[in-house]
User: Fold this.
Amino acid sequence: MEMDKKLRHYNDIRRVVMVVDDEPINQEMLGFILKKDYEVVLASNGEEALEKIRSRKRTLSMILLDLNMPVMDGYRLLEILREDEELKYIPVIVLTAEDGAEVRCLELGAVDFIKKPYNVPSVILARVRRAIELSEDNRIIQDAEQDELTGLYNRVFFFEYASQMDPFQEKGETDAIVINIDHFHLVNELYGRIYGDQVLQAIADGIREFMDENRGIACRCDGDMFYIYCPHQKEPAAILDVIRRHLEKLPDDSRIRLRMGVYAKAAPDELMERRFERAKLACSTVRGKYIEPVACYDVSMSETEVLSERLVNDLKRGLDEKQFKVWFQPKYAIQGEQPQLSSAEALIRWDHPEFGMISPSVFIPLFENNGLVQKLDHYVWAEAGRWIASWKSKYGFTVPVSVNISRVDMYDPRLKEKILTILEENHLTPEDYLLEITESAYSDDLEQLIHIVEELRVLGFMIEMDDFGAGYSTLNMLTVLPVDVLKLDMQFVKNATSDRKNYRLVELMKDIARFLEVPIVAEGVETKEQCEILQKIGFDLVQGYYFSPPLPPEEFEKLIKKEVDRKGAEIC
Assistant:
C-alpha cells in the first residue's frame, strides 16, 4: 500500500521537457502542445541548450531537438550528450524534415523522431510520453540490477543475464571465474572503509576493462568477491594483470592480494550457480598462496568437497557413537641417566565406520573453518580427564596430560567453568591436567588472551605454548606472554642436524626458554642423532616417534606400568 502511494505520487510529478529549436514559431507550437502535461523549457541553439541541460540534469526528462541551428547544431549536441556519463541517459527525440537524418541520429543516441510539420499533436504527445516511460523504466532496471558501489551487476541479475549468454557463444566454451581479496577485513580495519571501497572500485574498473576487450559480464557477489562469466580464456591470469594496473593507482596497493578460481569450458547444460560454486571452490584452494594465486577446478576438488561435507554431517554421530578416539603421545625427560616418562599429550583420531582411520590433518582444519572444533575439543577434554583419573586410581600416581585449547575456546566465557567441571567429576587437580595453547592464538587479541591465561594460571594450571617459533610471536611479545612451558615447533628439530646455522637456531630457542625461566619441549624427535643433539643443547623434554608414536589408551597404559615398575625397582 505504501509503495502504491509512492508510485502515485511519482506519477503525479510534472516532467520537464526541453524544446531546442531556433525557429520561434516551432518553439511556440511545441510549447502549446506540451504545456498541458509537461513543464516546458526553451532553447534556441545547442550551446544554450547544453547550459540549461547541465543546470537541470537531475529533473530533465526529455529533449526535443532540432538539427539545423546556428552556434551549435543538433548533431554536435548529440555527440556531447553521448560522451557525458551524466547526460547520456536523457532521452532525445529529433525534430526533422530530412529523411536521411535518421541513421546518423540513431548512431548518436537519439531514441525517436518527430517529423515536421507538427500537424498531429496527439502523435507528438504519444511519442514523448512513451519515450519518457521507456527511459525511466530502463533507469529503474539499471538501478536495480547494479551494485551501487562498483556499477557491476548484482548477483540476481548477473545469473539471469549469464544464463542468457550461452546460446550466443560461438564455440560454446565459457569460463566461470571467481576473484576474491585475501584478508579484505584487515584492509578495512587498517586503512578504513573509504579506502576499502576504493579497492573494490579499482577491481571493478579492471574487470570492466577486461570485459571491453574480451566480452562477458561481471558482478560483485559478496562484499569482496567478484564473479566473471566470459568466453574461454587460455590465459585467465591475465585478468589479474589488468586489475593490478588499476590497483597500482591506489596508495599501499602492495597489501592487496587477489586470488582467483576458474571453472573452464563449462558444459552448456550445467546450472550456472553450480559452475560458480566450483570456481569458488578452486579459489578457496589458493587462499594465502601469493606466488600462485590462480587455480582451475578439477574433479579432485569436487571429491574433497564431497568428503568435507560428509565429515561435517557425520561429526555429531561420530561423537555420540565414540568413533573419535583419544590417543596419547608420551613426553620424556632426557637430562637424567636414562629417559623417563614425564607427561603426555592428548591427540584425537577418527575411526570412521566407512572411511576408516582419518588423519587429524584432514578433519581438524575442516572443523576449525566450520566453527565446530569446540565440540571436538570438549570431547577430548572429557575423555582425557576420564583416562587420567583411571590411571591415577589404578597406579597411585599421575602422568600429567596436556589438552589443546583452540582459539575459539579462548573466547568462551564458560571456559574455566567447563575445565574445572571435568577436574571435579574426575577428582583431578590442575597439576594433573595441562593446557596447550598454540602460538598463533596469541596473535589475535593479545590483551584479552593474556587476561584469560593469567586467570587459568591463578587456578593452578600450567600453560604450554605449542608450535613455538612458527612465526607469530616477537621477542618483545615473549616478555609479556604468560606461559609455563614452550613446545618447539617440530620443523626446528627436523632441520637441527642439517647444518650449523639450523643447529645454532635451536640453541637460540633454548636460550630464550632459559631467559624466560621455563622448560622447553622439542616436538617431532624421530632419530637418535636428533635426541642426542637436543640433550647436548640442554632440552628438558622431548616428544616424537623416536620414543613413541601416539598410542591408544590401552597401549599408553603399558608405558605407565613400566614406569611404575622402574620406580618400584629403584626403591627396592
Summary: The CA atoms of residues 50 and 485 lie 77 Å apart. DSSP finds 22 helices and 19 strands in the chain. Residues 1-10 have pLDDT under 50 and may be disordered.
